[in-house]
Specification:
- The protein has two helices and 21 strands.
- It has about 325 residues and is mostly beta strands.
- It has one domain.
- Strands 3, 4, 5, 6, 9, 10, 12, 13, 16, 17, 18, 19, 20 and 21 form a 14-stranded antiparallel β-sheet that branches.
- Strand 7 and strand 8 form a beta hairpin.
- The two termini are about 45 Å apart.
């Protein structure tokens, strides 16, 4: 019998109408996929009359499932972690469609859940077909560097996985568009209201953004025989930003803001035809600037920042994605 091929792994997702109620997948997600079943066990270690383990193989106390995705950054696929991780979604337009994600920071999260389908096979038969529901996103990250494709990674965590047939004949979004790092723009401003007004030109070399959504599986004594989550905990939303730029007068000004512990506002943006992506955040620089040699004659300065709540704009993070198709439920 032939063995499974990495190239034939399939990840498919469907947006749940009711959180935790499985639905058929509607979209195929490309990327480097890692699927993990979670199982915590209790092992008794008290005397049992013999000098050998008597553990019953461990007694399950918690179950769950997780999938990690590493992929090229695209307008379309990014909607999955944003809906499942940031929440606060508002969709407008009838084509193009504008999705705005403003996380609720003074209330319980209102993220949406996904059903996840995963399959592995040899091209003739699937050896693994499984699904789990109630999937949310605890973390996501973005990377960009000149002359390279922009990339992202994200995770979906949910209820225990079960063997189930996956939805047949799904394809990637037909209008899926990857984002090149050189097409991105980075803006740095003094307030949330002025975000997008002052672009950092001819200096930004690379950057990374990591967002911890603060969402974790909620476990309560609810009589669930599956021993999996009963909800989502709304913890603290945090994040870290690293920006590498050629040292000039503008970039040096940010070192002064670091000394003064000023609140700064940064936006990552890209437009391609009717498609738009903006990631906006309020932050404070947290580490002393690091100076390095670029290797091509320039001095580089790296600034490290952490997401910080802005009381004036009442925000910390916001994302806006404009796409040509209504990819998920409004």
């Amino acid at each position: 019998m032939a063995t499974s091929l990495r190239a034939l792994r399939r990840l498919q997702v469907g947006l749940e109408a009711a959180l935790g109620t499985p639905v058929p997948a509607t979209s195929k997600i490309p990327g480097d996929i890692t699927f993990t079943e979670e199982l915590d066990k209790y092992y008794a270690n008290y005397p049992r009359g013999v000098r050998a383990p008597v553990t019953k193989g461990g007694i399950p106390v918690r179950k769950g499932a997780m999938v990690r995705v590493e992929q090229d950054l695209s307008f379309e696929d990014l909607l999955v972690p944003l809906q499942a991780g940031l929440g606060g979604k508002v969709r407008t337009g009838l084509g193009p469609y504008v999705y705005t994600f403003t996380p609720a920071l003074g209330a319980v999260t209102d993220v949406e859940g996904f059903t996840v389908e995963y399959a592995e096979g040899d091209g003739v038969a699937d050896h693994v077909t499984t699904e789990f529901s109630h999937a949310f996103c605890p973390r996501m990250s973005f990377n960009w560097a000149f002359n390279e494709i922009a990339t992202c990674s994200w995770e979906l965590v949910g209820r225990v996985a079960s063997d189930a047939a996956v939805t047949a004949a799904l394809t990637e979004h037909t209008d899926r568009e990857e984002i090149e790092s050189n097409s991105l723009s980075v803006f740095l401003n003094d307030s949330w209201a002025t975000l997008g007004n002052s672009q950092l030109l001819t200096i930004v070399r690379s950057g990374t953004l990591e967002i911890e959504t603060g969402l974790t599986p909620k476990s309560t004594i609810d009589g669930r025989s599956d021993l999996d989550l009963t909800g989502i905990n709304s913890g603290e939303l945090t994040g870290r930003l690293s920006l590498v730029g050629e040292l000039d007068a503008t970039w040096e000004t940010e070192r002064a803001h670091w000394r003064s512990n000023d609140l700064r506002f940064i936006q990552l943006s890209v437009t391609s035809g009717t498609k738009v992506l903006t990631l906006s955040l309020a932050c404070k620089f947290t580490s002393p600037p690091a100076f390095t040699d670029s290797g091509d004659g320039h001095t580089l300065m790296t600034m490290e920042a952490e997401i910080e709540y802005d009381p004036t704009g009442a925000r910390a993070v916001e994302a806006v994605v404009t796409v040509d198709s209504a990819l998920y439920a409004a």
